[in-house]
Design brief:
With 769 residues, the protein is an alpha/beta fold. 39% of the residues lie in helices and 17% in strands. The protein contains 24 helices and 26 strands. Helix 11 packs across helix 18 and helix 14 crosses helix 18.
């Protein structure tokens, strides 16, 4: 330091004006960076007198010393000291460590061992970075210790109907386990909803003239109209729209008839709505052995008939407190009595019919001649339904792993908790998956060092058996913000009921993510994609993922392993137990565990990918293809539309603007620094809005909750527009020009609005309107 001082003095041609002492002696705590600066009052006095004391040795200061040089040197020394102190404090900040359970001190960005501190020689090693390949391996390792069957057995060991004591006990247990997994926050969401239960008088089905009881089932169909009706029986296959069209072609009178349909293909609510539309008096639903193999002939099904989701007595708004809302009902309620019966009762009903035989495609596997119905001389069937409407408190249970960069953006993983009967596949499998995923992903954060950019929310829903009531009420309760925050929803309900086939229902934006998740996965030492070719199926209205997509505009996905694509025969029955599920896997618990573990790994990979990357893994380009397909179906009707004075120009322009907006977003992704948090968040927000912007803004969420123009329900949908337009060729008298003009205009503006929103700021919008 003396040499430096002399050099400075020589440079400026002067002598030192003061003395500053730096003590570099090692301190007792091992810190050798302590700085001691001494500017004594005596030194200052010496300066005043023109004399400086160097360790009590005074030197007479030359009278001609330049005061300017004194000032410059003092400022330089002070700047040096300030810089040195800042560096020192920064270094000390990095040295602040927290103790790990294994005794290792973790420093910010580094690791140091207790031994290195004792030796006063710190060894620094970079904190490991978890890349995508690392995450997949760690997830797989964590899931190897999972015990799914034990959790399934516990869930199904007691009854847990929605809102029952058993349901609440199970909810408390899940809440406790979420806390045990050390999730960042665990909370409950409480709702008061109206459900239907079996009445004091058993429902009954019988034949008239003479009276003959067919069955008094121990099951019921929730939200059925409570009434007594009688009419001629008519068989309508699966009760699909095309099935009823076939009956109309054969000149069957469906008005006042009691329709018999077999379960499967579409939801109960859709079957009933189709029958009601044609004037049916009631509906009977039975499980045919061709679809429900191994199910006993005396077993009937449980289900619901509400063509919608959530509490049908608070449509479009949440059931937090019924007393605050007017008495309204969903338009999706059936308004006619509905009842399920066993295959044995259906066989006797077929035997009573005297009409024409069915076509081969409509025949099931009952030991009876399948008839289409009865003529005027045939016997009527009588249906009595006496269900009771009850109010129940239900609980949704949530736990969250908070993101490190964007905690207000999250992926939701959910499973239904309640069930009618044991519900091993219906609720047990999904709940076991939910709990083990929560444990595994939490361990990856707390132990393996994964730091998700975004949050992961785990949700246990109640009243799912009544039409995703718990999930829908949550969506309705926080509708103003969830579409801005939830990146995607992954549904775990009934994820495993077999091992021969893999099927899924998904928003187009999540298909690429699913493809990524199953790539490279092994099942029984074979590649998943080669052994179990995936097949997409249309969302059913009773799928919990459906309201996320069609009501809230959130990309959603459901998937399942099953046997040959057929519905699991014991689902929604009193025999949906662990014994029957194991029988499906040849009584091999190990094989069942492997399939459930594979399902957990698929869901876990999807959640990790959505929280790991800078850019959201959303295939927004997929909707460009959906629009192209729609336009392709519309173009053949160009001549008919021109005859009405309508063109397709503006719809084509809207679609073109959407395509250009997609291209602009893709270009922005390529040219933006995704490590810039603000810029990356802005891009991701544009991607998240794609799904939401396909909710029609021209229909009321109260009157038409399922507003999605691709996946919703109502005249605002693109499929309804095409169906209505097709009447110009098939039934012109039923075509309404005013209705079609309205449909065309609103569809065009919905697509144009989606294009405008995707473009970004208003000065980026360029269209011909």
């Amino acid at each position: 330091m003396d040499h430096a001082r002399k050099a400075i003095l020589n440079m400026f041609g002067g002598e030192p004006l003061s003395y500053t002492r730096f003590s570099l002696a090692r301190q007792p705590d091992g810190d050798n960076s302590h700085v001691e600066m001494k500017l004594s009052a005596e030194d200052e006095e010496g300066i005043e007198n023109g004399v400086i004391d160097h360790h009590h040795t005074r030197t007479v200061k030359p009278r001609n010393n330049n005061h300017y040089l004194c000032f410059v040197l003092t400022v330089a020394v002070l700047i040096f000291l300030i810089g040195f102190l800042i560096g020192y404090l920064s270094f000390r900040g990095r040295m602040q460590a927290t103790k790990c359970e294994d005794g290792v001190e973790l420093c910010s960005g580094y690791q140091c061992t207790t031994e290195s501190i004792k030796d006063e020689s710190v060894e620094w090693t970079p904190e490991p970075v978890l890349y995508w390949g690392d995450l997949k391996s760690k997830l797989s390792d964590r899931l190897k210790s999972a015990s799914f069957i034990d959790k399934i057995r516990k869930v199904s060991s007691t009854t847990h109907d929605a809102g029952s004591t058993g349901d609440e006990i199970l909810a408390d247990d899940i809440h406790e386990q979420f806390n045990k997994f050390k999730l960042d926050k665990v909370w409950n969401d409480e709702h008061y909803v109206r459900l239907q239960a079996a009445g004091g008088t058993a429902n009954a089905v019988s034949l008239e003239d003479p009276s003959e009881a067919l069955e008094k089932p121990d099951t019921y169909v929730a939200y059925s109209e409570c009434a007594e009706v009688s009419g001629k029986p008519v068989y309508a296959n699966y009760g699909r729209s095309e099935d009823f069209r076939e009956l109309l072609k054969k000149n069957f009178n469906l008005s006042g008839a009691v329709i018999l349909v077999r379960a499967g293909e579409i939801a109960f609510a859709e079957k009933v709505a189709n029958a009601k539309r044609l004037g049916a008096a009631g509906v009977l639903i039975y499980p045919d052995p061709v679809d429900y193999r191994s199910l006993g002939d005396g077993v009937s099904l449980f289900g619901h008939a509400h063509l919608g989701t959530g509490d049908p007595f608070t449509p479009g708004f949440p059931s937090f407190n019924h007393t605050q809302f007017p008495p309204v009902e969903s338009s999706g309620l059936p308004r006619i009595p509905v009842q399920t019966i066993s295959s044995s009762a259906a066989r006797r009903l077929f035997s009573s019919m005297n009409g024409p035989d069915c076509d081969a495609a409509w025949k099931g596997n009952l030991p009876v001649v399948y008839k289409l119905g009865s003529d005027s001389s045939g016997r009527n069937v009588k249906l009595q339904v006496s269900n009771e409407l009850v109010e129940k408190k239900i609980l949704n249970i949530f736990g969250v792993i908070k993101g490190f960069e964007e905690p207000d953006r999250y992926v939701v993983i959910g499973a239904q908790r309640d069930s009618w009967g044991p519900g091993v596949v219906k609720a047990g499998v999904g709940t076991a998956l939910l709990l083990e995923l929560a444990r595994s992903l939490s361990d990856m954060v707390q132990i393996d060092g994964y730091k998700p950019r975004r949050s992961i929310v785990f949700a246990s829903w109640s009243a799912g058996a009544f039409g995703a009531v718990g999930a829908t009420e949550w969506l309705e309760g926080y509708a103003s913000s969830l579409h801005l925050k939830v990146v995607a929803y992954i549904n775990l309900d009934s994820a495993v009921s077999g091992s021969k086939d893999f099927r899924f229902s998904a928003s187009p934006m999540l298909k690429t993510l699913l493809d990524e998740a199953v790539t490279g996965m092994k099942v029984s030492s074979a590649d998943l994609r080669s052994v179990l070719p995936s097949k997409e199926v249309v969302f059913r209205v009773d799928d919990t993922a459906f309201p996320f997509l069609s009501y809230s505009g959130i990309p959603s996905i459901s998937f399942s392993f099953n046997d040959g694509g057929k519905q699991y025969p014991y689902l929604d029955t009193s025999v949906d137990d662990l014994e029957n599920l194991l029988r499906t896997f040849r009584s091999s618990p190990a094989q069942l565990e492997n399939m459930i573990r594979a399902a957990a790994e698929i869901a876990g990979r999807m959640a990790l990918r959505m929280t790991h990357d800078h850019e959201l893994y959303l295939d927004y380009q997929s909707y460009n293809n959906k629009l192209r397909d729609f336009i392709g179906k519309l173009i053949p009707y160009r001549k008919e539309m021109m005859n009405l004075g309508l063109g397709q120009q503006w719809l084509l322009v809207a679609r073109g603007d959407f395509t250009r907006a997609m291209a602009a977003l893709t270009q922005d992704v390529k040219t933006t620094d995704l490590t810039n948090r603000a810029a990356c968040r802005a891009l991701n927000d544009r991607m998240m809005k794609v799904e939401y912007n396909f909710l029609s803004p021209y229909v009321s969420p109260k009157d038409t909750p399922l507003r999605h123009i691709f996946f919703g329900s109502g005249s605002h949908t693109l499929s309804a527009l095409l169906d209505h337009l097709s009447l110009l060729r098939t039934n012109k008298s039923s075509f309404s020009e005013d209705l079609f003009r309205n449909q065309l205009a609103l569809a065009t503006w919905t697509i144009q609005s989606a294009a405008n929103a995707l473009s970004g700021d208003i000065w980026s919008i360029d269209n011909e309107f």
